[in-house]
Amino acid sequence: MGTTQLESVPEPKYWHLKTVLSDALDSEFAVGEILPNERDLAARFGVARATLRQALEQLELEGRLQRRRGVGTTVAPPRMGVAVGDAGHVWPGTAADSWQAVDGTEAAPPAAVARLLGTGAEETVHTVRRIRRTHGQTVAAELLYVPAASVPGLAAIDAPGGAARARAVLRELQRIQLEGQERSVELGSARADDAKQLDRLPGSPVLVVTTRYAAGGATAAVAVATYRADTCRLTFGGSGGSDVQLLAG
Q: Could you give the CA distance from residue 234 to residue 185 in angstroms, rounded to a whole number?
């Protein structure tokens, strides 16, 4: 990487530095190569480490870099698209579902989810944890919240916890006529448990996709899926609907 003068540029220093670093990644570094440490990079470009961190964070958000535990900051591999938006209205756990159920329990949902479900603040619901893998990597983690009223037959199923209980909840959902879905997407920071699942550091940028499933004129379930923001982009189809594409590197 060569040096550059950043003092006279009209745009923020970190943004100009991001452009310079991006060009260097294309010309001087191989996929998977570890970047020099922050101190050396900051000295080479004549910027404060805080400015450098801002530039690196932007490149990570754009999928150019990856931060990995015990390794450091590496050049991200070419990205491959994986569709996240579904073509029709289907319940989680159907034959075409690409998620894997890993755990099931009962717990009070976060306040925002409780409001969507219309449950009480301390009322417990069935909670199913799922992960999505592609090209050998875990690329998303999801928590599916299902009130007891949505799966009344579950009480007769001997599945106290774990993956067996998760699969039982998903099977019971198939008995309900799904009326529709509403999905929202927002940028967030990875919580400790999600970061561990996604092989990212806590606080790393993520896309949080919240899906509300409607049945019987009410909210029957809510799913909160966390995708690695460094590998995601939003695309909009010609029909006017939106589709989330995951770019898994």
A: 9
E-strand stretches of the chain:
65-68, 72-75, 80-83, 99-107, 125-134, 137-146, 180-189, 205-215, 218-228, 232-236, 242-248
Look-up of token digits 């898994």: 248
Residue pLDDT, tens place only, 57-115: 888 877 788 877 777 888 887 665 555 555 445 788 887 778 899 999 999 999 999 99
DSSP state letters, 38-89: HHHHHHHHT--HHHHHHHHHHHHHTTSEEEETTTEEEEPPPPEEEE-S-SS-
Structure tokens at 240: 């006017």
Q: Which residue carries 């220093």 as its tokens? A: 13
Whether the predicted pLDDT of 207 surpasses 70: yes
> Angle 148-146-136 (CA atoms, 0-180°, nearest 5)?
145
Cα four-point dihedral sign 121, 127, 133, 137? positive
Rounded Cα gap, residues 145 and 114, in angstroms: 9
CA 7 to chain centre: 36
Alpha carbon 89 to its chain's center: 21
- Asked whether the predicted pLDDT for residue 56 surpasses 50, the reply is yes
CB atoms within 10 A of CB 221: 28
Query: Do the Cβ atoms of 188 and 206 come closer than 8 Å?
Result: yes
Please count the other Cβ atoms lying within 10 Å of the Cβ belonging to residue 165.
Answer: 22
- For the stretch 11-39, pLDDT in tens is 688 888 988 898 888 888 888 899 998 89
Band the pLDDT of 4: cuts 50, 70, 90.
Answer: low
